[in-house]
Amino acid sequence: MRKFWIEFHRISGLILIIPLLLQSISGSIIVFDHAIDEWLNPQLVLSGQLNAPPAPLSDILYAALHAVPDIAHINSLRAPRSDKAMYTAFVEMKSQSPLHGKTIEVMIHPYTADVVSVREWGSYFTSMIYLFHFTFLLGESMELVLGFLAILMLINVIVGVYYGWPRSKKAWNWLLARTQKATSTVGRFRRTHIALGLMSLPIFITLIVSGFSLIFPDQTKWLLNRPDKASPNVAWLADEPVQAEKWLISAKQHWPDKQWQRIIPPTEQNPSVEIRLNAE
Asked: Whole-angstrom Cα distance, residue 96 to residue 207?
């Protein structure tokens, strides 16, 4: 079995090296996605000194809902990341729209409520990097393949730790290069491989498990026994205006030290408002 698992570790490692390298490169770019996007699209960054008060939230929502024809509803509104950033709204298009089924992103000026940009998510550089990171631009089925490759990587790491972990003082001395005995070039590479693998184990496990949870969110919730999101029974009164500013006032009463990050406005299918907050 030792020979089998070592061969498994070696062959699966060779299989995984290319997708792992591509994931590492795309993931590194994603870390700086907002900075890159704003550098490529300077119109998305506020310029100059603006002493005017921010536009009311209701004006921001109105601008998002009327940015282009045939918008059915707003899926979510994200707060500006900084004092120089825009509001970001993701809208759902009506079935008769040629953009139906696509993720449309609307960028809105936080002080004037003007629509600065309307673009399809996945058509510009940083969003393409996201798609590449999740699917290699090969469709949703490739996302599942990457999920199973993550499982294979987890097994590979477990096997490597099991057979690479030193089980004696002599083995530890060899791994830490404390022995005076000459080691061949292959042996030094093997020692480096085992040492780096053991040192980076927490990072590998975190990346694998978090990536798996992103690809298989429902299964992750089931494994962690996470409760479903609350769905309050709210009557839909379409003839009454929605007072968007009151949503945040109500949230502040419960969590005064929190700052809202995302708002999911009500729809006929889900008439309640969802507000996601974060610590300031």
From this structure: 41
